[in-house]
Please model this.
Amino acid sequence: MKTLYLDCSMGAAGDMLAAALLELMPDPEKFVEECNHLGIPGVHIGMETSVKCGITGTHLSVTVNGEEEESHDVHEHAHSHGDAHDHSHSSLHDIEHIIRDHLLLPQKVQNNVMAVYTLIAEAESRAHGKPVEEIHFHEVGTMDAVADITMVCLLMDRLSPDEVIASPIHVGSGQVCCTHGILPVPAPATAHILQGVPMYGGSIKGELCTPTGAALLKHFADRFGEMPMMKTTAIGYGMGKKDFEAANCVRAMYGETDAVQEEICELSCNVDDMTSEAVGFAMEQLLREGALDVYTMPVGMKKSRPGILIHVMCRKADKETMVRSIFKYTTTIGIRENRFWRYALERRMEALETPYGLVRYKVSIGYGVERRKYEYEDLSRIAKEKNISISEAEILVKKWELLAGASGIKNPTQTERTKL
Model:
């Protein structure tokens, strides 16, 4: 599985992410040349070698009509230079007009660019207490941000990783001086975007993660956490402009992972005063609320009482929710925790259009094996409709698939997922 890991231990900005991904390309200069011919109004993109704390990487410079923005970002309060109000401004609608009608971009890339911009506009709307329609971006800042965001979306499309993982994000600390005054770090828009994402401060003073960087990570990262076990084939360093005591860069690591690997929690408890019906109900609720698995074992407890050992497997991020749910749905007064590494086959859901309706099936791949299994709910529906057994329904679907040479719906779109 092609995996992209983004190390954001010094935060992230749009130009840093673009530069890091650019270094993963076989011909970065050619890609930059392509971007310069996209038609972004007045924009010219340049790349240069940059060294931070002894590490060599790439720094991107973006000029708009020959002018380079002091801070490469789109949030309207980030620009503190004196002539900020002498330029015109662009709304989200104006940005969409540029992206959809003027740039030579694939539809998928256009959609990704607008999704990122929508995240930023919604965050600015909440931060400033204004409708999204009234959010406007400083013209120079807008154009260089269009370049940064477009480059990242194009690079993601070219690299096409199966999974994107980002580290917890270092946002910096202290305050940042903006046109609206002095604001805390992370800036309000950045904080809104990063809700639900692991982030942390630290001793480094300054804004390390910008709204553009936050929105790009929020949109593209499938999950946030530690670097998985992977064989890297390319490593890129995207350098920021400022110098800190640590190397100011985003590191992108691209490679292969054999299967999904993650650290999970096992929560367990013993009960001796619950009926089997109550235990069954608790298991159903825990699975519904996000448990990876729930199972029970008979045990002998204190005072020679027969009891039930309840095991709940969950992701680390869901641990607190599961703890609350275990106390809510069981009679236990104490829960134990163990942590394990889970190795899992890569899984995806596909579907077949059959004369018996849509039939979903799960494909599992990794470690040299490939498995395929029809979804029970769909086989059960066919069995009930035809008044046959589950095994007969499975044979029916297999026979139709072989005779028809049916092709499945792979990697369903959001609409197809809703249908599934």
